[in-house]
Amino acid sequence: MNREEAARKLGVDLASLSPAPPASRFAETWARMQQEPPCSACGRPSRTSGVIHDPAHGPRWFDRCRECFLATPPTLRVPQARFLEELRATAADARLPLRTYTDEDGWEVSDVDDERFHLILTAGGKPMMHGWWGKRPTAEHQYLSWIGSWGSIDGARIVLTERADDGERVLASWPQGS
Fold first, then answer.
1. What is the model's pLDDT at position 101?
2. HEC secondary structure over 55-74
3. How far apart are CA 111 and CA 90, in angstroms?
4. Closest Cα partner for 62 from 12, 22, 25?
């Protein structure tokens, strides 16, 4: 469902939401999420923010806590089977290991250690995002991509590690020397 449908399902009065910029950028949404405003539906600290463009009230911030977000998940624009088929084809074309879980198929099994390389993004010392990859070239590509995408966040630190018998070994960190 889209944000407007989610707000309606959660019983949120759009007039009560905080005004938002007409064309919010990622940096503005990110800054708002860092403030953890109260969930628009239940008042708990929010974990996601977005803008609803309401004709009667203009752009409004719509903030959801984890529970309210999970109760109103975004809807795929294509059937699930087609989405998974396209996702698998794209991953295969890029030679990326992919493990999906659905009620129909269960876990896919592969011989690649999907959790060998670990990429971690922190900002201001707080963990923000992480991911695992089974192949070093893929992990290194993601590392560079994350620097380009997330490196401008204040206090951002991105670390690429490799799992070893005695823990994790740092392969690269950004900014250098961090």
1. 61
2. CCCEEEEEEECHHHHHHCCC
3. 19
4. 12
- Using alpha carbons, list the distances in angstroms from residue 31 to 25, 38, 70, 154: 10, 14, 22, 10
- Which pLDDT tens digit goes with each residue over 112-166? 566 789 999 999 888 888 888 888 888 898 999 899 888 888 899 999 999 888 8
**DSSP annotation of 76:** P
- Under 8 Å CB-to-CB from 49, ≥6 apart: which residues? 29, 32, 33, 37, 61, 62, 63, 64
Number of H helices, E strands in the chain: 5, 6
Residue 80, CB-side half-sphere exposure with 13 Å CA sphere: 8
pTM over 0.90: no
Angstrom distance (rounded) from CA 142 to CA 146 = 6
Query: What mean pLDDT is predicted for residues 22-38?
Result: 87
Is there a contact between 72 and 1 (Cβ–Cβ < 8 Å)? yes
Cβ 157 vs Cβ 173: under 8 Å: yes
- Residue type for position 101: Y
Residue 107: C-alpha distances to residues 73, 84, 96, 99, 104 (Å): 22, 13, 16, 7, 10
